[in-house]
Design a protein that fits this description.
Blueprint: H1 3-10, H2 16-38, H3 40-60, H4 66-78, E1 89-90, H5 104-108, E2 110-111, H6 113-126, E3 131-139, H7 144-149, E4 154-161, E5 164-169, E6 174-178, E7 183-186, E8 193-196, H8 198-204, H9 209-223, H10 230-245, H11 248-268
Parallel strand pairs: 1-2
Antiparallel strand pairs: 3-4, 3-8, 4-5, 5-6, 6-7, 7-8
């Protein structure tokens, strides 16, 4: 199946499929706008915290290196430094999930891929760095049937380094790159793949159908570009981890400065 051709035909307002997606997107946008009013104080405290996080990310990470910045976010997340009581627990159920601000759950001490990816995007937006969220399905191989019936079950972050795209799954600290416009191939694990789901991208993350179609085209073009090899990526990871491990004072100061905002967010969350 030519997935690119299928989506070019189906992703528009004149198809039954497109109309269904438009309705889902409209419902989502309304929910986000409603949440901005209901959870105004939560969101204000959260965005102030994001500013602090962006400062420590830039301080620890390698200069002008989005891969390094992304690793720092992953380390802060999984070490508990972004959460109340300095504990972050991976879980998919019983989440607060304020649509549009899913990273708030991370501050409350729990969350899954959608929450960590949302927080990552907030930080990269604050740093004025290119980024996006990629909704995808996990598949064990590239069997055509598996790809067709795959259900979106995961989200990861898209970043840019030296002019090309990289995928970072920050909750598991896994890096990958596009193999074509849809299939995402991990750097150090060839036993599983991610498959980009444009329809989910449209509902939650992209402005319109045209943007999603352009995403497919751009991801396909990027798959033909030269990316860093495993050795170079390992060097960036190691150097960033060394900087993180030697930044105890900076992290301690961040944790102290973050407490009023974390307390405000968790006290307001019912």
């Amino acid at each position: 199946m030519d997935f690119e051709y299928f989506y070019k035909i189906e992703l528009n307002e004149n198809t039954a499929y497109g109309e269904k997606l438009l309705k889902l997107k409209d419902d989502y946008v309304k929910e986000v706008e409603k949440n901005k009013i209901i959870y105004k104080k939560n969101i204000e405290a959260y965005m102030k915290l994001i500013k602090l996080v962006s400062l420590i990310v830039k301080e620890i990470g390698l200069k002008d290196n989005s891969i390094s910045y992304s690793i720092v976010i992953s380390k802060l997340l999984n070490s508990g430094f972004l959460s109340k009581n300095l504990i972050f627990t991976k879980q998919q159920n019983d989440l607060f999930d304020i649509e549009g601000y899913l990273g708030i759950d991370v501050i409350n001490g729990y969350g899954c891929c959608r929450n960590s990816a949302s927080l990552h995007k907030n930080v990269f937006d604050q740093l004025n760095l290119f980024n996006n969220i990629i909704p995808c399905a996990k598949v064990e191989n590239q069997n055509l049937r598996d790809l067709i019936i795959s259900v979106a079950s995961h989200v990861v972050n898209l970043i840019e380094y030296e002019g090309v795209y990289y995928i970072h799954d920050i909750i598991y600290n896994i890096f990958a790159k596009f193999e074509d416009g849809f299939i995402i191939d991990e750097y150090f694990n060839k036993q599983s793949y991610l498959f980009y789901k444009p329809e989910i991208d449209f509902i939650f993350y992209s402005q319109d159908f045209k943007k999603v179609i352009n995403n497919i085209k751009n991801y396909k073009l990027d798959s033909r570009c030269s990316h860093i090899d495993n050795s170079k990526l390992k060097d960036i990871i190691l150097e960033t981890e060394n900087r993180f491990n030697s930044s105890n004072d900076a992290i301690k100061n961040y944790v102290i400065s973050a407490q009023p905002y974390i307390k405000a967010i968790t006290n307001l969350t019912i």
